[in-house]
């Protein structure tokens, strides 16, 4: 609080930020405004963040890592890069959205959904799909956009969702993907590309995080529509963690504490990032998914991460290379 | 490598050359060798050996290796061919509108990865304006063809500028001699012009090969199912947090690059191709027969594609909603120039301006040391310099982290400060400039090597004989004669600095804003208008930079008379 | 009675018709060739002689088709070939700066033209071998041009053109970098090939001896124009202008006023009356120049008296050049085959005598000493 | 009593000590310069003469520091300068292939070296103007090299070296592309500047007349070695080897066996006994060559009889060359200043006479006709 004794550290916090540029800027600004503690950030994708934290561990430049998928945090933890800090505010966050050991805590949720171009679909006499099964409709041939699970976290989430949906049966999951294969235009490299494809009308529907679709529609691509599969969908958790050996440990803790408050989690939505806050008390804006309206599968982040290499290899061999009939 | 001493081209190193050689060596050691060594160290661990075994037994991985090689070779060939086509039209054809063509050929030097690829999708995609609506064909550019298309287009200007300089400097009496011996234009082209330009063709080929193979951004957007090693390495870092694999991929990626380099040096080292002599004669006769029209048409066709692509980019930046609502607006541009983008634009430009002259200077200097002074040592410098682009940017960035993040101590005394991070020297800017330099040196190096091998050593000898030290001879005689190479080096370096992203991302500090990462951010969020506005601004800045460089470097010296039709001022 | 068709003329008749070449780049523009008109018979050996920069190279280049004339035409065997590109002219040229292909070996350089003609392998090889032998280049065939001395390079350039055996050969100072001995044998070789094959040759040289001994006709050029085109002996002893007399060989000019002109002209020179052959333009009582070559003057020690005194003596091995001061000015006298022990020292009084039959009377059109000043 | 220190010697003393240069690239390696040893006095004008490819250019390049000798040393004013780079040697060179800077104008080319020396503007300008005038290049100063004729380019190369006024000037066939007239005035200009400033000159030429008239000493090279280094008249009349006799000027060789050798040697040639000067190595009763220059032989029509008959006559303007068939072989005879009307036709019987005082007896070490075969 203003007027308190100055913290024993540098009095600022340096953040490795894994979310969108605007999200990071708004969040840090809000923190400084709230606490008076200076904050600076560098935007890094999760792999870059792990690399940078890892190779700079002798003299850490970051205090906090904020945003970006949880599997990155798990990896960083395996390298021993994160400090164990159980924030008092973390108690309010549901257990499935945080690390059991308390190394990282979830701050938002990205929920997988279908992003449809209503114009394209209407021309084919279709409506936006509401189940994984509808996605297999023959009329959607070459009209589904999805990224490659090996290169895109989004697509891997979609793949693991199939596994989860089939009760852990990998063979069944791959069978589904192979059935989907003829409908896929191409497995693009980046997770955002399918959203762009659907916006430009290259495909009729794509499998993306719902907040990406919403953000794109916000841009003015008004013919986009988000739907969710009723069989259940997967999600990604965005985390926050304290970095081991941080130079500003006190301010960093205050930052983590603040980031887990409802007010902090609402900031993203004001700048076009419509991920779902993990704090139950955080307000959801109009665009943001109401979690209760969506069926979520039982998504085991740890297991998903552990089997990623194996699964993507099998996907490559059994699905990706198959000819399209 | 060249036969030392067997050749009167090559003189023993003299005292004055050593400082230059040492400076070059310091740069490549610090900028390339040390960081790469740091990464590749992990590629030699026991853990890594298992990965090699996996790699060479996995059909998928071998396919990826083959894909990579095919891509590199195709892009090398296509890019060099397009560059040569434009240079030939410019220097040898009697056709109108050459200045316009020249300007158009410069534009693709600025190719923020996202821009060209996105524009290409919009135009030539499945629902593309050209492919679908105009021609009504069922074609999409995703895959190898699209990749080659996008990469060739964005890399060919280096080849173009270098070859143009060489063509213009070449002693026309050689071509004249061939024609008086009865050789047709086509035969002169094949038996005299091409072999003499071999260094000019091989240099860009190597550069394009290396860049194509290590390029990451374009494969991410248009490669579709076409996997290449660079994206594998990238994925290992970002998807699997697996540095060892990334390093392994990089080692495998380096092998073909070094191979191509060695072949080129061996092949070119065997014959001299000096065509700029101190006894000029003859005149260039522009081709004015009907045969020029098909060639010209091809160049114009490619120019049109460039115009359309970049026109799309500009349009996208100046209209409300890309692909949907083409109402003009300056909102995106305003955001970039006066809003949140302003700082990124200023920071990036400043850093690029700092790095450009260093890169251009060192590129030429290494070329000079390698071609003229110390073929052995120079050969290694040349290789090390070229390797600066031979690995994916991410991997090099990690190398920088490993090499320069921690200060160096001997005992307790800090002998070298930390270079990476906000608390580092110059707020971390120094290392970014170094990275820029290292990534841009090869262009100047390759075109410089080509241009220098064209100069008769007598010219520098005459300067030395008249009292010039090696560096002065370099400055007053060599440099003005390889001015086009210098322009290419500087221009390309500037463009490269302004647009490079993957290396830098690992080095940026909270204090520095990088335009390309802003751009990619906007693109990822599907804010295409803003992203394309960034591209437009970037293009303008780079082209303005070209203008400034042209002013500083000066016009190319006219070394020969040109006859047969309209002559363009240079 | 039937008439046989006249035998087809040998090919290689060359005609230059009012050729003019102006380089527009400069202010004022440089006119390198100025209305040059010349007819060359098939198989004729013509030498272009003239001061540096007078337009010799440019003329050759126009004939070869490398340069377009600003005005005028080139005819080959009667046909105007101005528009024909160089590769379609049956000519080969030896370039002043050699223009060897740096990426090819000596052998490949020489074989280049034959390869273009798709001569079969064996024929090419034997022609190249032959040329290598003739040009004294045996053993160098696998070298690169940059591994050769200047003179060796020049001979490769020569060989490359000669193997072509074209209708017309154009030589631009092809022997300038060779020593006297080698030059002698090269001259003979060139002449032999040219004669045997009846090739028309346009030959540029600055070596007057070369011009004198090789040429059927010599064309003396000056500032882009032809001053005289004639047989060597006529150029030497019957020059058309003072410029030619002065440029080709050395000449003494004595100002005289002819008192009578018919078959010869009656003049008084060095105090002696004589009758000398005269140029058709020489007029009675109009001042003219009496031209006498140094070697046609004779010199005798005169003790006291005589008509001059030695100013300077220069020893040349095979001869001695004297400069002799006379009342008519300084005269050059060459005394051949001298005994070095019996040179006439400076200051010696001498009598100079003119051989009237080998002197020539020229009209006084231009100033003598303005010769060879350029540009 | 005190001794004054001896006056400091003028700079420019040059010493070549067993210089050898081998180009290793070839099999077998090419030895271009082979143990060349030579001392050059300050201010001396030395000409290197020798057949094409004998190593002249390479020698100059080693002296200039452009090439490193494989063995041996170069001394300048006593100091070994092998390791000194070219720019730190007080020398300037005229390159055989000019090496003009193609991007600079004529004026800038000439001024280049002076600019390097940071001479002030005005001094540079006036030196350049002076050189332009001396080299007959006035009006061309703002042209680019590619806008010049071959001879003009060569003169620029010459001017660029001369303006430097260095201690040592190295000339590599600097006048090869100039006509006789211009060459004459250039020679004079070079000699004038060189003498006035006491510059040491190493001059390569293939023009024997040039070598004879300009040099203090001539060095005749063959296959990388020095055959003889001596004053011009000695080279001509007292050659050290058959090679020199044959290479410099023309020479007749008659096989003789001297019957007595002391001051001169007693021999019988063309049926006449005579006493001729002899090389120190000539031995009694060992076969030797009697060397006689063509112009020292005299020729008289002999009607019937005589000792030879005319094989061929070649007219040169200032002289006629005869080839005369004799019992001792074919002899070359030069008759100066001939009357073209009175040439001796082929087949004419003649008497050839040798002037014994201008003949020279040489030991028979090497075969005569092997001369000038290379590489
Ligand atoms: N780089 C080289 N590699 C191999 N041999 C060479 C090289 N350079 C020169 N030579 C050879 O060395 C010899 C001497 O060459 P140099 O240029 O000194 O001759 P030169 O006396 O100047 O002849 P010229 O009068 O023809 O110019 C020649 O036989 C030449 O072929
Ligand atoms: N590109 C050019 N621009 C202007 N003037 C030129 C150009 N090329 C040649 N000249 C001039 O034209 C004239 C004739 O040149 P050319 O080369 O025909 O002379 P040349 O008779 O061959 O002389 P040399 O004996 O010196 O070789 C020269 O005065 C030269 O300076
Ligand atoms: Mg010429
Ligand atoms: Mg030479």
Structural notes for this entry:
The complex is a heterotetramer, with 1 copy of chain A (325 residues), 1 copy of chain B (570 residues) and 2 copies of chain C (375 residues). Helix content of chain A is 37%, strand content 19%. With 325 residues, chain A is an alpha/beta fold. In chain A, helix 1 packs across helix 10, helix 5 packs across helix 6 and helix 6 packs across helix 12. Chain A is globular. Chain B is mainly α. Chain B has a domain of 181 residues: MetI-like fold. Chain B has 25 helices and 6 strands. In chain B, strand 4 and strand 5 form a beta hairpin. In chain B, helix 15 packs across helix 25. The longest helix of chain B is centred in the N-terminal third of the chain and has 34 residues. Chain B starts with 16 loop residues before the first helix and ends in a 7-residue tail after the last strand. By secondary structure, chain C is of the alpha+beta class. Chain C has 2 domains: 224 residues, P-loop containing nucleotide triphosphate hydrolases (Rossmann fold), CATH 3.40.50; 113 residues, OB fold (Dihydrolipoamide Acetyltransferase, E2P), CATH 2.40.50. Chain C contains 8 helices and 21 strands. A 6-stranded mixed beta sheet of chain C has the order 6-7-8-3-9-10, sandwiched between helices. Chain C has a 5-stranded antiparallel beta sheet with strand order 16-20-17-18-19, with no helix packed on it. Chain C has a 4-stranded antiparallel beta sheet with strand order 2-1-4-5, covered by helices on one side. In chain C, helix 2 crosses helix 3, helix 2 runs parallel beside helix 4 and helix 3 crosses helix 4. Chain C is globular. Chains in contact: A-B, B-C, B-D, C-D. At the C-D interface, helix 4, helix 5, helix 6, helix 7 and strand 19 of C face helix 4, helix 5, helix 6, helix 7 and strand 19 of D. Bound molecules: adenosine-5'-triphosphate (2 copies) and magnesium ion (MG) (2 copies). Chain B: It is found in: Cell inner membrane; Cell membrane. Chain B: One of its GO terms (biological process) is transmembrane transport. Chain B: It comes from Spongiactinospora rosea. Chain B: Keywords: Cell inner membrane, Cell membrane, Membrane, Transmembrane, Transmembrane helix, Transport.
């Amino acid at each position: 609080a203003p007027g308190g004794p100055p913290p024993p550290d540098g009095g600022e916090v340096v953040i490795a930020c894994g979310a969108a540029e605007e999200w990071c800027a708004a969040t840090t600004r809000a923190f400084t405004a709230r606490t008076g503690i200076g904050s600076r950030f560098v935007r890094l994708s999760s792999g870059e963040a792990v690399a940078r934290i890892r190779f700079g561990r002798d003299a850490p430049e970051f205090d906090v890592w904020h945003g970006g998928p949880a599997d990155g945090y798990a990896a960083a933890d395996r390298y021993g890069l994160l400090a164990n800090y159980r924030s008092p505010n973390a108690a309010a966050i549901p257990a499935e959205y945080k690390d059991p050991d308390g190394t990282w805590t979830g701050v938002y949720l990205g929920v997988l959904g279908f992003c449809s171009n209503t114009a394209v679909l209407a021309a084919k006499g279709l409506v936006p799909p509401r189940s994984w099964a509808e996605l297999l409709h023959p009329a959607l041939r070459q009209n589904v956009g999805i990224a490659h699970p090996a290169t895109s976290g989004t697509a891997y989430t979609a793949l693991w969702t199939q596994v989860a949906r089939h009760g852990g049966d990998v063979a069944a999951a791959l069978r589904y993907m192979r059935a989907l294969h003829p409908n896929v235009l191409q497995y693009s490299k980046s997770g955002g590309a399918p959203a762009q494809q659907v916006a430009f009308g290259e495909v009729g529907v794509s499998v993306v995080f719902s907040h990406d679709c919403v953000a794109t529609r916000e841009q003015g691509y008004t013919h986009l529509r988000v739907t969710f599969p009723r069989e259940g969908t997967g999600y990604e958790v965005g985390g926050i963690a304290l970095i081991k050996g941080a130079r500003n440990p006190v301010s960093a803790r205050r930052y983590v504490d603040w980031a887990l408050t409802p007010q902090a989690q609402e900031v993203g939505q004001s700048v076009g990032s419509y991920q779902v806050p993990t704090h139950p008390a955080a307000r959801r804006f109009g665009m943001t998914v109401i979690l209760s309206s969506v069926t979520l599968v039982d998504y085991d982040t740890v297991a998903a991460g552990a089997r990623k290499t194996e699964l993507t290899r099998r996907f490559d061999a059994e699905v990706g290379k198959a000819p399209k009939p | 490598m060249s036969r030392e001493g067997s050749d009167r081209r090559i003189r023993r190193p003299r005292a004055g050359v050593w400082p230059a050689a040492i400076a070059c060596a310091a740069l490549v050691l610090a900028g390339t060798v040390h960081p790469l060594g740091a990464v590749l160290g992990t590629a030699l661990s026991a853990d890594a050996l298992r990965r090699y075994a996996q790699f060479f037994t996995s059909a998928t991985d071998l396919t990826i290796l083959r894909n990579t090689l095919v891509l590199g070779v195709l892009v090398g060939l296509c890019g060099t061919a397009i560059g040569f086509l434009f240079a030939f039209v410019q220097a040898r054809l009697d056709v109108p509108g050459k200045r316009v063509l020249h300007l158009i050929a410069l534009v693709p030097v600025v190719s923020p990865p996202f821009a060209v690829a996105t524009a290409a999708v919009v135009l030539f995609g499945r629902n593309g304006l050209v492919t679908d609506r105009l021609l009504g064909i069922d074609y999409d550019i995703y895959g190898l063809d699209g990749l080659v298309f996008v990469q060739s287009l964005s890399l060919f200007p280096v080849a173009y500028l270098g070859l143009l300089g060489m063509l213009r400097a070449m002693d026309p009496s050689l071509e004249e001699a061939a024609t008086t011996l009865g050789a047709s234009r086509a035969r002169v082209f094949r038996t005299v012009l091409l072999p003499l330009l071999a260094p000019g063709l091989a240099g860009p080929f190597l550069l394009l090969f290396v860049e194509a193979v290590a390029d990451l951004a374009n494969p991410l957007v248009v490669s579709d199912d076409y996997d290449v090693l660079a994206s594998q390495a990238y994925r290992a870092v970002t998807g699997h947090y697996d540095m060892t694999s990334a390093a392994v991929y990089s080692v495998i990626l380096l092998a073909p690059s070094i191979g191509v380099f060695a072949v080129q040096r061996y092949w070119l080292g065997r014959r001299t191709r000096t065509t700029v002599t101190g006894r000029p004669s003859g005149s260039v006769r522009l081709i004015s027969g009907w045969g020029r029209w098909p060639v010209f048409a091809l160049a114009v066709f490619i120019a049109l594609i460039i115009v359309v692509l970049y026109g799309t980019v500009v349009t996208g930046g100046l209209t409300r909603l890309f692909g949907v609502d083409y109402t003009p607006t300056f909102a995106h541009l305003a955001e970039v120039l006066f809003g949140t983008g302003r700082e990124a634009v200023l920071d990036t430009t400043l850093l690029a301006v700092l790095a450009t002259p260093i890169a251009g200077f060192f590129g030429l200097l290494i070329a000079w040391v390698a071609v003229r002074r110390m073929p052995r040592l120079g050969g290694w410098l040349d290789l090390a310099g070229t390797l600066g682009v031979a690995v994916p940017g991410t991997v090099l960035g990690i190398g920088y982290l490993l090499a320069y993040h921690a200060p160096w101590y001997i005992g307790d005394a800090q002998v070298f400060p930390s270079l990476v991070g906000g608390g580092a020297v110059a707020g971390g800017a120094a290392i970014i400039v170094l990275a820029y330099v290292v990534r841009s040196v090869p262009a100047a190096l390759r075109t410089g090597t080509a241009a220098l091998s064209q100069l008769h050593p007598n010219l520098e000898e005459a300067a030395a004989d008249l009292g010039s030290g090696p560096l002065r001879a370099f400055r007053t005689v060599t440099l003005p004669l390889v001015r086009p190479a210098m322009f290419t080096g500087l221009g390309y370096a500037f463009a490269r600095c302004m647009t490079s992203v993957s290396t830098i991302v690992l080095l940026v500090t909270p204090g520095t804003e990088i335009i390309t990462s802003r751009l990619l951010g906007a693109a990822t969020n599907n804010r295409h208008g803003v992203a394309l506005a960034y591209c437009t601004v970037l293009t303008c800045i780079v082209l303005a930079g070209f203008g400034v460089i042209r002013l500083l470097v000066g016009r190319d010296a006219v070394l020969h008379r040109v006859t047969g039709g309209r002559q363009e001022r240079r | 009675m039937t008439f046989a068709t006249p035998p087809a003329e040998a090919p290689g008749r060359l005609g230059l018709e009012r050729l003019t070449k102006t380089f527009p780049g400069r202010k004022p523009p440089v006119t390198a060739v100025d209305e040059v008109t010349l007819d060359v018979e098939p198989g004729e050996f013509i030498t272009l002689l003239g001061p540096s920069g007078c337009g010799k190279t440019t003329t050759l280049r126009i004939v070869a088709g490398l340069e377009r004339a600003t005005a005028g035409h080139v005819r080959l065997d009667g046909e105007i070939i101005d528009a024909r590109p160089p590769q379609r002219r049956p000519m080969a040229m030896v370039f002043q700066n050699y223009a060897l292909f740096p990426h090819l070996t000596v052998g490949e350089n020489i074989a280049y033209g034959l390869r273009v003609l798709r001569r079969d392998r064996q024929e090419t090889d034997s022609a190249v071998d032959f040329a290598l032998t003739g040009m004294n280049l045996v053993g160098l065939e696998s070298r690169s041009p940059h591994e050769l001395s200047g003179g060796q390079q020049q001979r490769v350039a020569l060989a490359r053109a000669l193997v072509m055996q074209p209708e017309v050969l154009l030589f631009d100072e092809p022997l300038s970098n060779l020593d006297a001995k080698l030059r002698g044998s090269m001259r003979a070789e060139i002449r032999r090939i040219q004669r045997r094959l009846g090739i028309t040759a346009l030959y540029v040289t600055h070596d007057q001896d070369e011009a004198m001994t090789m040429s059927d006709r010599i064309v003396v050029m000056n500032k882009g124009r032809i001053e005289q085109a004639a047989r060597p002996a006529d150029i030497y002893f019957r020059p058309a202008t003072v410029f030619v007399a002065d440029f080709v060989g050395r000449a003494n000019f004595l100002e005289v006023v002819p008192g009578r002109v018919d078959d010869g002209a009656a003049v008084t020179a060095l105090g002696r009356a004589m009758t000398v052959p005269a140029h058709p333009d020489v007029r009675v009582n109009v001042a003219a120049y009496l031209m006498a070559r140094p070697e046609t003057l004779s010199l005798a020690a005169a003790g006291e008296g005589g008509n001059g005194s030695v100013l300077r003596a220069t020893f040349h091995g095979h001869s001695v050049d004297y400069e002799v001061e006379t009342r008519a000015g300084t005269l050059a006298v060459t005394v051949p085959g001298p005994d070095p022990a019996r040179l006439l020292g400076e200051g010696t009084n001498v009598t100079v005598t003119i051989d009237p039959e080998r002197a020539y009377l020229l009209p006084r059109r231009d100033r003598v000493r303005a010769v060879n000043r350029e540009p």
